[in-house]
Structures are given as C-alpha cells and as structure tokens.
Design brief:
Elements (H helix, E strand, L loop, with lengths): L3 H26 L2 H29 L9 H27 L10 E4 L2 E7 L3 H6 L4 E6 L5 H7 L13 E5 L7 H11 L4 E5 L8 H7 L1 H6 L2 E4 L3 H9 L3 E7 L2 H8 L3 H10 L8 E4 L4 E5 L6 H16 L9 E7 L5 H14 L10 H11 L4 E3 L5 E7 L6 H4 L6 E7 L3 H14 L6 E5 L2 H7 L1 H9 L4 E4 L4 H4 L5 E3 L12 E2 L1 E3 L7 E7 L7 H4 L18 H13 L6 H9 L2
Parallel strand pairs: 4-5, 4-7, 5-6, 7-8, 9-10, 9-14, 10-13, 12-13, 14-15, 15-19
Antiparallel strand pairs: 1-2, 2-3, 3-19, 8-17, 11-12, 16-18
Helix pairs in contact: 1-9, 2-3, 2-7, 3-6, 3-21, 12-13, 16-18, 21-22
C-alpha cells in the first residue's frame, strides 16, 4: 500500500513528466537563435541572483559568511555557471549562422592526437588566467576537419529531439547539477527532469529563478526528494536517458539494483535499468610530484597547492587528490613532506558538512592507525608508509573526506615518471583526474619522456602544475572519466559534460599552469602574471576575488578588470 509520501511523489513526478513531454514539442520548434536567447536571459538571472546562490551555499556548508573560503562558492557556483552559459550561447550563435563552434579554434597535435586549445579562448582569459592553458585531446584518428564538421552534437539537428533525460544532481559542488542539466538539454537535445541531491535542496528557490526561462517553456523541471523519488524517476518509462554524478556504489545500485539482487544481476550481466546512463563518479585521484631542484619558495607554494587539492570544499570533491606519488630518492622529499604537513595542519578550519564524513575519516583511521591527525581537531589524516606493491584500502576507496596518502616509489628522472604512471594507472581506482607537479627545468630535461608521461596517463583530465579543477572551471574543456569504461566496471563514469564547444569524440583535457605564482614566475622566466590562485584554501582575498570574477562572467567588460587584479594581488 502506498504511503502518503509515495503517493505525493508519484503525483509530482507525473505532473513534471507530462509537462516535459509537452515542452519537448515546443523545444523542437524553437530555432537556435531562440535557444541562445534563453541562455542569455539565464546569464542575466544568474547575475541578479548570484549573491542568493552563494548565501544558500554558505548555509549548506556551514561557512562563516565573512571567511575567505566563501570564494570557493563563488567560483564553483555562479561563476562557472555564468561562464558556461556565455560559451554555450556563442556555440549556438555560430551554429545558427551556419558556422562550426570550432571555426576559429586553434588546432595542434600531441603524439597521435589532434588537440583543440580550450584555454585561453578569449583575450580576457589571457589576462585573468595568465599562464594557464588547456587543450582538449580528440580520440585517435579524429582529424581537425572532422572535429569542425561534428562540433555541435545534437544541435546540428535541433528539431530532432531525444525525449526526456533524468539528471541526478550532486550534493557537493553547487554548479554540478545545473551544468549537467544544461549539457543534457543542449548537447543531447533532451528536455530535463533535474533532481537535486537532498544536501543542495536549499538551493531550489534560486535555481528556480535562474532556470525560469527554461521552466516556463517546459523544457526543465527541478525536483526535490529522497532516494525513493529518484528511483521512481529513473525507472519511469517516459525517461529516455539518465545522467548522474555521485559514487560508483550509487551508480551500481541504479543500474543493477541494491544488495544481493544487484550482485546477482551484475554477475549475470542483466541490468535493472533498461535505458542508457552516463555518469561522473570520482575515484582516487593522484598527484605525481616529479623530483627536481626546488627553491624554498617552490617547496612552500607547491605544498599549499597540494593541500588545496585535498582540502578545497572540505575535501568533498570528486577530483580531490587522495594519493601523493613521490620519489623516495628525491633529496628534498623530507622537506617537501614537512611543508605539506604544515600546509594541511594550518589550512583554515571548517565544519564537516557532507553526510558521513566523520564516519569515513574514522574508517580510514581504523585502517591506518599510525596516520598523522592534523587540523584544529585532528579531523585531517595524512597517511604515510603506504606499500606501493600492496592492495592498500586507500588505493581503492574514495574517502570523500580530508584523508591524504603518500606513496613513495624508488628512482628519479624517467625511471620515476614511468613507475608513477604505472602506479596511477594500475593501482588506483578511477580515471577522472590526475595532477603532475614538476619544475620547468625538469620538464625540459625529460623532454619527450615527459610528453609520453602525459599521454600514457589514462585520465579524463591531466593537469601539469595546476589542479584538475581548473579543467572543471573551463567551460570549453571537457569533464569526465577517461573513455572506455563499462556498466560493470564503471570506475569514474561514462561520457563527458561541460564541453561548451560541443565537440564529438573527446579523449581527455590537458591543463597546464605556472610552476610559480607571480611575481616569482616572471623573475624565473615563466611568462605568467597570475598570483596565488583564488581557489587556494589559504588565499586571503578569495571571497572578494571570486565575487568580482562572477560579476565579470555575467557581464564581461574591460572596466571590471582593475578591481579583479587588485583583489587577486592581495590574496
């Protein structure tokens, strides 16, 4: 017998899906110019409601509204969403004019891959992210001509829609759910039933305001509720496709079912879900520290860089670094690990807002009782002494909490980089993102060996002297696992999102950043003017810089730049 809540969920779902079926017909008739206008209106609404968005995120994450950490919510919330709306709007403008979104793109080659420069893509990028670059690598065999011809994906045939897509939102980064909904609508030409994660339900009012142009047309419906409503949504016969962000455990429960029944189905290869699913699922992300001759400033800066990779958003990121791969024979190893320990220990304190975090830290502590307890209350764990040849729990379990392990491998130079790639590829679960930190002189000395290192890493985003999250913040880059995973071995997921140029057959994105912040970067021959990035957890002006950058993303104007530069330089 149905409970009252079950009956209410069924009624809400039926109303939403009926409206979306009608909306799909209106969407099919809407020309590309009309679609672009909707995105532009959404960007204006993002500007109007950005503060409300961030205020809701601050309450969810139990942050001090006056703390610099609020900058995380500006950058990973309305900033990247507004920037993505702009990039998608330009792609639709190109397609409406009969041009490829890649018509003016810069193509190059990396090994056997054709690449597309995704960052910088504008003069503004060259100034605001000076020294940062990103390239989208196409799959082997895809030419630049083919990439141009196929860019646009489902918007190449806008009248040919593909039903209703269900998007199951994430509970950690507040832009994930709205960005995934946009990608489902634009890249796949499916109208969207977006179900928020209960953690982010307080964002419903602001999302409804920003998505009003799409919801008024009937092409997006935003739903809230628990697991039962989510299960009912994905199982509904009117849903043509599912996209989710979360864990592999949740993915398998959706695809195969829970418990013993799910295990039987998975073993037999008979999914419970009878429709296609794409996903972004995280994993155990590594950072490879390539040994070199570093100054005291380099050691300090890169220690804070790695601390940020683990502790940003409290450690609740799908691409948070969990395993540091370092050379046991690096003469500066002990000094670097001491600096890393200090950076983790002294990083700003924050509450563990994400459900289950304390339990996961306790589980890690039980597995590694000798781990160092860092932070104000010992809530952060640094695990050393890991055996690179063993099947360590830290290699296979994404803790989704402030737990960081250190894996020491023998060797230096090419011997180390080869072993580090093998460890990252073969020992660690997941393929979402990998970071490499290397002194520019070491990169030059390794030459083709360093290029080979990048190419051999089987990850959806590879970041050199940058955090892979820079790829997330770049609308024209792709975001997702390395291609090739299957439903029964899903790892970090299937498919990509973001990808505002709507490129087909992507293999990965490669991000590069400056090894040093300005002004040290310029003094040492790196032509990069970026000071300490605003996403660093110890950036003193992150909140102000993030807010200013969001204002720029919603309304790009040269007159906004001086205030951004002034704030960034004080960080």
């Amino acid at each position: 017998m149905q409970t009252e809540q079950t009956a209410a969920d069924a009624a809400v779902l039926d109303t939403a899906l009926t409206a979306l079926a009608d909306g799909e017909r209106r969407w099919a008739r809407l020309p590309l110019t009309g679609r672009r206008d909707l995105l532009d209106r959404m960007r204006e609404l993002t500007a109007r409601h950005a503060q409300e968005w961030v205020d809701a995120a601050v309450r969810i994450k139990k942050l001090d509204p006056a703390a610099p950490l609020v900058g995380e919510e500006w950058l990973s919330g309305p900033y990247v969403f507004a920037a993505s709306l702009t990039a998608l709007s330009r792609s639709l403008e190109s397609l409406a004019g009969g041009r490829s979104p890649l018509a003016d793109a810069t193509f190059s080659c990396a090994g056997e891959h054709v690449t597309v420069r995704a960052l910088p893509s504008t003069r503004y990028d060259e100034l605001l992210l000076s020294g940062f670059r990103a390239e989208v690598w196409l799959q082997r065999g895809v030419s630049s001509a083919a990439a141009k011809a196929n860019a646009g994906l489902a918007q190449l045939q806008p009248a040919h829609t593909h039903g209703i897509g269900a998007v199951l939102g994430a509970g950690n980064i507040t832009s994930i759910a709205p960005l995934d909904a946009l990608y489902e609508l634009i890249a796949h030409n499916r109208v969207v039933a977006l179900k928020l994660n209960p953690v982010t339900d307080p964002l419903l009012p602001v999302f409804e305001k920003i998505f009003a142009p799409l919801s008024e047309l009937g092409v997006v419906r935003i739903l809230t509720g628990g697991a039962e409503l989510g299960g009912r949504l994905v199982a509904d016969e009117r849903i043509a496709h599912v996209h989710m962000t979360g864990s592999a455990v949740t993915h398998d429960a959706i695809v195969w079912g829970a418990g013993a029944e799910g295990a039987r189905r998975k073993a037999a290869g008979t999914p419970k879900l009878n429709k296609p699913i794409s996903s972004e699922l995280g994993g155990v992300s590594p950072t490879i520290v390539v040994p070199g001759d570093w100054s005291a400033g380099d050691l300090e800066f890169q220690a804070r860089h790695l601390a940020t990779q683990r502790l940003h958003n409290g450690g609740y990121n799908c691409v948070a670094a969990q395993a540091i791969i370092i050379s046991a024979d690096w003469p500066q190893k002990d000094r670097f690990l001491a600096a890393l320990t200090a950076a983790i220990d002294t990083a700003p304190a924050r509450d563990a807002y994400y459900p289950g975090s304390d339990d996961r830290v306790a589980t890690a502590r039980a597995s590694y009782p000798e781990a160092r307890r860092l932070g104000e209350h010992g809530e952060r764990l640094l695990v050393t002494g890991l055996d690179p040849g063993a099947d360590e729990t830290l290699y296979s379990s994404e803790y989704f909490a402030p737990v960081l392990g250190v894996v020491e491998l023998p060797g230096t130079g090419a011997a180390f980089t080869r072993a580090a790639v093998d460890t990252a590829n073969e020992k660690l679960t997941g393929t979402l993102g990998v970071n490499i930190v290397a002194h520019p002189d070491t990169v030059a000395e390794l030459g083709e060996e360093f290029d080979s290192m990048i190419e051999r890493l089987r990850y959806g985003t590879v970041a050199v002297n940058a955090w892979t999250a820079v790829g997330y913040l770049t609308p024209t880059a792709s975001w997702g696992a390395y291609p090739g995973h299957t439903l029964d071995d899903v790892q970090s997921g299937i498919g990509v999102v973001h990808n505002a140029w709507l490129i087909d057959r992507i293999e990965r994105t490669v991000v590069r950043g400056p090894f040093r912040p300005a002004p040290r970067s310029v003094l040492h021959g790196e032509w990069a003017l970026t000071p300490k990035p605003p996403w660093f957890v110890d950036n003193r002006t992150a909140a102000q810089t993030g807010k200013l950058l969001t204002g720029f993303a919603t309304d790009p104007r040269w007159t906004r730049l001086p205030a951004i530069f002034a704030s960034a330089l004080r960080g």
